[in-house]
Amino acid sequence: MKQVFFILLTYLFIADINAQRVGIGTTTPHVSAALEIRSTTGGLLIPAMTQAQRNAIALPAASLLIFQTDGIMGFYYNSGTPAAPNWTPLAGSGSSGWQLTGNSGTNPSTHFIGTTDLQPLLFKINNKRAGFIDSSSTNNTGIGFRVLDSLTTGGFNTAFGYKSLHANSTGNQNTGVGLTALRS
Question: Of 180, 99, 144, 183, which is closest to residue 132 (Cα–Cα)?
Fold first, then answer.
């Protein structure tokens, strides 16, 4: 009977250990975390490797994360399966997104700045309109700081230049080109 009790107690202890969360730098990891790391003096260091080393990982788990040190450097994760890995750069890493320092290897048939739905494209400087292209409802186009600033319902207007058509709110089919053209 003692052996049965000991085996049952050992099983319950092991089951309790397997259900625990792991904390590094904390004895009370958050209940939603399998692993929680707390530190005010250091960070998490992800494995760094070359693209060839990354590609040589045997059966990489889905969501496996690495930092690539050559080619297009950055954080990559496997968005595929272990049998068919698909190394995807995280936003801001590698080739995803337009870079502030320019891009290379672009193809105009697949790479562009714009929208993929019928929403207008808007540019701002200091949170003020500096350009927009709208082909969905009003068909207005403006390039230049504060162009068509007062526009509410006007349509089919074209403005190019600083404050061009600035005060136009409801006018239609106007074209202003140049510094403050048709401003009032």
Answer: 144
